UniProtKB/TrEMBL annotation:
Protein name, entry field: MFS general substrate transporter
Biological process annotations from GO: myo-inositol transport; polyol transmembrane transport
Major facilitator superfamily (MFS) profile domain segment(s): 124-622
Acidic residues: compositionally biased ranges: 72-81
UniProt-listed PANTHER family: MAJOR FACILITATOR SUPERFAMILY (MFS) PROFILE DOMAIN-CONTAINING PROTEIN, PROTON MYO-INOSITOL COTRANSPORTER
Cellular compartments annotated: Membrane
Family listed: Belongs to the major facilitator superfamily. Sugar transporter (TC 2.A.1.1) family.
Superkingdom, natural source: Eukaryota
Membrane topology classification: Multi-pass membrane protein
One cellular-component annotation, GO: membrane
Gene3D superfamilies, A to Z: MFS general substrate transporter like domains
InterPro entries xrefs: MFS_dom (IPR020846), MFS_sugar_transport-like (IPR005828), MFS_trans_sf (IPR036259), Myo-inositol_Transporter (IPR050814), Sugar/inositol_transpt (IPR003663)
Length: 696
């Protein structure tokens, strides 16, 4: 009887208009939800030594508020008597059923304390970090100052004569391979029942391991080019899978911050590769071979870490998915919460992707299981579904903005840049190489340090947060401070926090630094201040770039896609990022021959172009509590988003009126009215959008 009632009720709901943007469990009636979970248990868990029906029923009630649980401030006592589960308990009352250890687990998930998470989750995060470190190491330890002479490619230090195109092609082939072969070949492997996320990363690490060994033994530049091609397959595959894998194992409230680890450990890898290059500065083969070290460690770690529970659910391996979630979340009822949430969200997405536009406005029937969507069916969905098409455009822009910023002139070709820019005036070539490699190490260290800053800034702050909320421990900085200083600090905090804001500020400040470097590089070679000035502004440029244009693109691209389209979507983003890297590696050596100052002048314009594209066409993803909630950000057409941002620019002329309004609006604790209304017609658009759009 419950089944007939459930189907009838859901069929009635199907007549209402619906879009893929909300938790599919939020609007279900309690009886329907209970019947659905009972059917799920009977079909997949009954008679198995895995999840119990009560755990799944408690989990589905928790899942209605997934990622946004409100716990009582008073800590529960182990000896307190808690009510027993009954089918009449709703999503509010189910919190009272939780044991103190479960409440503590939720608090840890909602905090910044990632080191307090279960051991299996930490090991899996470590494997993801090692994968990104391997990529950075391979970027820096490329032997560019040694292999041309060793393999018969004649180039000059300033790249003005010789086989400069051969040199560029050998460097570029890695990124063209990473753009085309790595991302789009890895999807079928990743979706196979045997390999999954772990297996795909293992294969990618094997490619990197073999390519570094093969490259170090090359006897011709053609052989080295082939080794670099296979290295690109490993790089592209890791970049496509690891951010997704990492996002799928993390609690919702930690995804933004921990996903910064991709950029941070890539930067650490660049630094480690630079150190290896410096140590083996007289032997380019050992420089290249050193990249096998992190690849070997990654091969070992893939055996110790957990598979993605989302991938297991997509494959229909529900028992193993639940057991994996128990390892990742430690508490069984919290694992059950995430299991049922993922399961019904995937079913909802599959229904949405397989319907025509007319039927896709109807609510899905969660009674009927929808099977796996194949690669050939998922690939066209990038452009045929409005929500995915908007995500594809935004992903392409944020990925290309990283290349337009000009940072990879230094990340890929730092040693060549410092040599071609004639920053050292020593007459001893060996001493000059040593100094240039030292500058490359300095860049790598600065990139690693400043990338870590994004961990604290990547998540947006609540619009009306007070100083006590920003610093819950009571350790407000600059104590004692005046009310005016507190208000200024709050506004500065909000200016820095959030993905989109961080990316925009990074591109804007980076453009200014590139403009300054353009003129500093024009200083005469015999100017004793040239080295110090250029080095200082290169480090300032790195400081501007790393927390935003460095950290945001891969994080953004990993979180904006639905479950079934995540691999294809991330591959799309990686394609554009590495395609830009390939063209940069191909043409920059020739550009250095044209002149370092002119090259930086061109990238000044590119960086400003990236800023404009991000401002007008990239929606914010801040304040979303889960990967699935990202869908709502792309319900608005990008051109409408751009028009709204253009209207914001038109209000700049009213800045003298707007700033007091913002000051009052943002400081509710200090007498400001958070629901302040303005009578100025010119400000109504700003106020309306400021209330509806998350801060990011």
């Amino acid at each position: 009887m419950p089944e007939d009632k459930t189907e009838a009720t859901i069929d009635t709901q199907n007549k209402e208009e619906w879009t893929l943007k909300d938790n599919p469990l939020e609007e279900l009636e309690l009886e329907i939800m209970t019947a659905l979970v009972k059917r799920l248990y009977d079909e997949h868990f009954a008679g198995q030594s895995s999840a119990t029906e009560e755990e799944l029923q408690v989990g589905v009630r928790l899942a209605r508020r997934h990622g946004s649980h409100q716990l009582d401030e008073e800590e529960a006592n182990e000896d307190d008597e808690r009510p027993a589960y009954t089918p009449s308990i709703d999503s509010r009352g189910v919190i009272d059923l939780l044991e103190p250890r479960e409440r503590r687990a939720i608090e840890i998930q909602q905090s910044k304390q990632f080191w307090m998470e279960p051991k299996d989750l930490l090991i899996t995060i470590l494997a993801c970090c090692m994968a990104s470190m391997t990529q950075g190491w391979d970027q820096a330890a490329n032997g560019n100052l040694g292999w041309p002479n060793g393999l018969g490619v004649s180039i000059e230090p300033n790249q003005s004569r010789g086989d400069v195109w051969t040199f560029g092609a050998v460097n570029a082939i890695t990124w063209f391979s990473a753009a085309v072969l790595g991302p789009f070949l890895v999807d079928p492997i990743c979706y196979s029942r045997f390999f999954g996320r772990r297996g795909s990363v293992f294969i990618a690490a094997a490619f990197s391991f073999a390519a570094t060994i093969g490259g170090s033994r090359a006897t011709t530049w053609e052989g080295y080019l082939i080794a670099r091609l296979f290295l690109g397959i490993g790089i592209g595959a890791k970049a496509s899978i690891v951010p997704i894998w990492e996002s799928e194992i993390l609690p919702p409230n930690k995804r933004g911050r921990i996903l910064v680890s991709w950029q941070v450990f890539t930067a650490i890898g660049i630094f480690a590769g630079s150190v290896a290059t410096y140590i083996f500065r007289t032997n380019w083969r050992n420089q290249v071979l050193s990249g096998a070290i992190p690849a070997l460690i990654l091969l070992i770690l893939t055996y110790l870490c957990c598979e993605s529970p989302r991938w297991l659910i997509i494959q229909g391996n529900y028992i193993k998915a639940f057991d994996t979630l128990v390892r990742l979340r430690k508490e069984r009822r919290l694992a059950a919460e995430e299991f049922v949430y993922i399961y019904y969200q995937i079913q909802t997405e599959r229904y949405y992707q397989r319907q025509d536009k007319k039927k896709s406005k109807q609510k899905p029937d969660l009674n009927h299981f929808i099977g796996h969507i194949g690669y050939g069916e998922r690939l066209p969905k990038i452009v045929t579904i409005d929500r995915n098409r908007r995500a594809a455009v935004a992903t392409m822009i944020v990925m290309l903005s990283q290349q337009l910023s000009g940072i990879n002139i230094l990340a890929f070709l730092a040693s060549i840049f410092f040599t071609a820019a004639n920053l050292t005036t020593t007459s001893d070539p060996d001493e000059g190489i040593k100094r240039n490699l030292g500058l490359s190490m300095g860049f790598g260290a600065a990139n690693a340090i400043f990338s870590a800053v994004a961990y604290f800034w990547i998540e947006p702050l609540p619009l009306n947060a007070s100083m006590d909320e920003l610093y819950p421990s009571g350790s407000t900085p600059l104590q004692p401070v005046s009310k005016k200083k507190e208000e200024s600090l709050e506004k500065m905090q909000r200016l820095l926090y959030g993905r989109r804001r961080l990316l925009l500020q990074s591109l804007a400040s980076g453009t200014v630094m590139l403009f300054i470097l353009t003129f500093l590089l024009r200083l005469p070679e015999d100017n004793p201040n040239k080295l110090g000035a250029v080095t200082a502004f290169v480090f300032i440029f790195t400081m501007c770039y790393s927390p935003g244009a460095g950290a945001v693109p891969f994080l953004y691209s990993a979180e904006v896609w639905p479950n079934e389209g995540r691999e294809v979507g991330m591959s799309w983003g990686v394609f554009w990022n590495f395609l830009g890297s390939g063209f940069l590696a191909l043409f920059v050596p020739r550009g250095l021959a044209w002149g370092s100052d002119k090259l930086f002048g061109v990238f000044t314009g590119f960086s400003f172009l990236g800023f404009l594209l991000v401002y007008f066409l990239v929606p914010s993803t801040g304040n979303a509590t889960s990967l699935e909630d990202m869908s709502r950000r792309f319900d608005v057409r990008l051109r409408d988003h751009g028009k709204k941002k253009l209207k914001h620019l038109q209000h700049i002329k009213n800045i003298s009126k707007w700033m007091p309004f913002v000051s009052q609006r943002q400081t509710g604790k200090y007498g400001g009215n958070t629901n302040l209304k303005t009578t100025d017609p010119a400000l109504e658009g700003v106020q309306k959008s400021d209330q509806s759009e998350p801060v990011s």
